[in-house]
Structure formats: structure tokens, C-alpha cells
Amino acid sequence: MDGPRYILGSKIASGGMAEIHLSKQISKDGFERICAVKRILPHLSSNRDFIEMFRDEAHICKKLQHTNIVRIEGFEDIDGSFAIIMEFVDGSDLRSILSACERSKTRLSVPMALFIAAEAARGLHYAHAKRDEISQALLGIVHRDISPQNIMVSYEGEVKVTDFGIAKAKNKSTETQTGTVKGKYSYMSPEQITAQKVDRRSDIFSLGIVFWEMLAMRKLFQAGNDVTTIGRVRNCKITVSLLKENKHVTPELEKLVLKCLAKDPKERYQTADDMEKAIRKFLYANYSDFSAGELGKFLKERLSSKRKQMRKNLKNMLSQSSLPVASEQGLELVLPDKEEAQRPLPSSPPLAAGGGNAAIKARRPSSDAFADNSKNKEAVFSSPSSGKAASVVPLFKDISESSKGSSRESPAMLAYGVRRRKRRKRSSNGALNMLAVASFALIIGIVVYVVKNKPPLRVSSSNFLRLQLDTTPSRVKISIDNKPYKNGVYQQTPLILQSAAGKHLIRVFRHGYRLRKFEYHGQKGQMIEKTLVLEAVAKMSAVRIVSENERKKYIVDVNSGFFVGESPALVPDLLYNKRHSVRIVPKGGGRMRQFTCSFVPTTRSISNPHLLIIKGRRCTSRAR
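^ thats the sequence. predicted structure below, dont judge the formating
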């Protein structure tokens, strides 16, 4: 046997243009290994457009060798059918994972979503920054089809981007015509869906959609029809808050996700590397004990039946012995050149039925390749030795728009010092007394309002040097030239600091984090932007603040502005084993007055935080 042969097992994915088989490769020295074979469907084997797309995918992916990208190992003509030999990922695509979570009424944890997004961004950055080995020219790769279907996660917690079938690159033999839209509508960027020029920032937007959906467990833009979906993406209208959809999402995390989803590409992360760094800094600051093994364990539990079936298929396929085949000329795993691509395309014979347990002969490629750009994919599981028809089961089931009948939380009121509404007191002295008191109170109120709200003299911002400061975490204490800003009270960033022209020293502080300081200088009217990520240096505790009465909402202010939000609230970074105070204000007023509690968190697990329960006018604190 001169070249490798392939024993095809069960289909692991099937779409409108291609199918992927679990396969066993047998080399000429008898060495066997598992791989995946992606083959164009027979009725498309004579369509040159699909063949050219297939060839482009093979050309692009052969150059991409990265741990976060599904590896392409060869491009071959297998029995007259064009095929790409791919790395086999023992796991599942993200769409199937999210669907399994929905069926079991669970969800990916926040650190799992952060990890998957960071790993996918890492693979994308490698593809975006890839250069030609000889000329060192930037290849200009843009994936253009980032979606949950094209992100694979293994049972060991590895994350890989796949399917560069419609990727944009400078050296492609096929070019997308102006005004042509390729990809899945609900995962496109606004510039992509309007057929404008796209760059790597379009992939960042698409990955931002996937990131948002992992946290929210619902679709962001997809509607009941394509017209509405396209309108939502084009307008980039996000009407649902992540804080409402996931109680574990903090304002800092929502801000990070929304930066990926900015309508203007200039306002997004400019590279996938920047996006990855921002995600990992948040992950390490808030979930330092998370590991990829936790994600792998979660997948094994949620996809146990699918994993069991795959192992059965693997066992059946590996038990098949190679059948004798006629000697073929030596196989060179090379891509066809342009001249070879112009030769007549071979006709493709029908695919083998009955599970595909025949040994397939591999020959030198005689033409190009294709790409799988299907939207609705299915998986076909069958035993290779079985003669029965394979049963089709949905593999990429969409997440439902939202859970019907579920209660909706109000968005967090990030307001400091909320006043409660005073109850009306009924006077027993009659209508005249009430009218006199009301008139007097009204006059006094008007006078006080006018005095307190007298507008200050307007000074043009062009007379000041301005600093736009953005920090993670977003609530910090600031000093300018060693003078506390706003009396040293915690401030919410981003904010703009105005100062006289010249040189200034800024100090940024948050309890439990390393003090950061920097100098800046400039002229009048100049705007300077500065972004800081604070480094946690103390042992941290996560505290969840909830109300005994779930319908009753409170505004909680922890440590005088360190954290301000609406119950239920998760504070991920309080100092461990230290006493903290929380001011609790009933939302919407009422008879109950605001009150203060103190507590000492005694657990460090973010997944199992310390619990502070509001009961009436007191709090109960306990470790879970």
C-alpha cells in the first residue's frame, strides 16, 4: 500500500454542502489514527464555486497551526470526492453545549463563558496576525463566520475555532463580489450585514455576540424572520441588559461585553488580542481558582449520552480491519496549483451506504476544495457495521429566545445614597390646617430648591486639560496631585477629570488592589485617555446579597460606595475574613426605613459565595 487509506465511521456533522465523517487513517507503514474527513456532497461535486471555496479553506487552514484552531492535515481526492482531512476534536460544538444546558435547565458559569471567549479570541488573533512564511506579508485573514457552531470545545476543556470556509484572505482564488453577504445573519457585524468592507474587528463583534449569548442563555439578534434579524443587526439595537439575564454578571463584565458589540468598529477592541487580554484580566481578578478542567468536567456531565454514543462509534470503527485495495501511486498531501484547478472536474460517485465501513482509497488531488457554509446542521449517528439506515438527530438546536413565564429582574440602580419616600401624614386638625401646612412647606421647598440648584457659572471645557479615565474594576477612589477627588468617595468610571494645563499626578485606589499612579500632562482643551486594570493583591471573598422575600428589592451600598447595586447582588472582591458594612435601602420607598448591617465573609469560592440574607430590618450572614 503506497498511500494512506481511510475507513469512514459515522457522520458527526452534516449540512447542505458537506458532511463530516469520523474516520480512521491507515498509513503505508500500518500506523492507524483517528481523524475527521470533511467531504463535499455528491450533487455539488461539479459546482466550481463550491470547489473553489473548498480549495480556499484548505489553502488558508493549512497555514494555521495553532492550539485554538482546528488543524487541517491534508486535502485529498478520495474516490472522486473532494475531502479535507481534519483534526478530530473529542468534544462538541458550542451550539450543542448551549442547547444541552437549556434542556437540563442549567447554564455555563461566568468563568466558563469567560474562558471560552478568551480562548476563541486567542485563536482568532493568531489567524488575523498570520503572515506568509516567505514574503512575511500579512495574509489579511478574517473568519467572517464566527458563531457557536464554529467553536469546538473538547471534553478536556480545549477551545478551537473551526470552519474558515468563507474566510476573507488576500491570496484567495475566489473573491466576494461587492454587495454580497456571506455568513449567518444573526452573528454578523453591522458592516458585514450591509456588505461593507470588513476587517478583523468584524470577527470581534461576532465573537462578542457569542460571548453575550453564553452569559444570557438566549439569542441576541435573531428574530422570527431574516428581515427583522437583519434590521436588528444593522441598527445594533441591544435592548436587554445582561444584568437582568444573569444575576452573576457584574456591571464591569457587562461593560466589557458591550465594548465588543459597539456599532462603530473604532469603539470596539481593535484586535482580538486586546479582547483576550481584557477578558483574562477580569477572569483572573474574579475567578483565580478556575481551570479548564472544570469546563471539561461540566461537558462530560451535560453531554454524557452524546459522549457515550461517540465512544461506541469509535470502538466500532477502530474494530474494522482495512480491506485489500489495489496499489495506488504515492500520495503527496499538497494543494493543487492554478493550472491543475482548471482541469475538468471528476464526477463523484454516490456515497457508500450502510454506515460507510468500506476502506476508501486516497489519490493525488486532481482539483480544488470546498467549504461548509451550512446554517442548519444535523448529526447522523450509526454503527459502521450496521446495515440499517442511520437515524438523524438534531445537533445544532437553537437556543430559545427566552424562557416564557420567567420573572424579569429590574436593571440594577447604580445610584449612591437613595432617599426613601416619606409617608404622608394625615392631619387631624381639618382641611384648613392641612392646606396651611402644605402651602408653607411648598414655599420653603421652592426657596431651598432655587438656592441649592442655582446654576454655576459655565466655564468652557476648552479652558481645561481633560483626562478620560477608565478602570477595571470600575469603582475606585481617585486623588489628583495628592488631593482626594470628590472627598475620597468611590467613583464610577469611566469619568472625565478636568484640571489646569500642565503636569499632574493621578493615584487610583481600591481596597484589596494594588495602588496605581501615573503622571499626565497637556495643554488647554486637550483630551487624554487612560485605561487601567487594577491588580488584586489580597485574599478575596465573593458575597451574594439576597432578600428573604424574593419579590422585595433593595439598593445595597457596601463599604460606602465600594459596591452599589440592586438585590440580588454578587460582590466578587471583598476582603476575606474582614468586617464589612452594607447600607440597605428598600427600593420604591414604603414604610421600612434604610438600615445598616455588618458581616465577615468566610469563604473564598466564587462558585459558592458567602451568603448575606436580608430579613426585615436585619441581616443573616452565613457561609454556604
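The CA atoms of residues 189 and 202 lie 5 Å apart.
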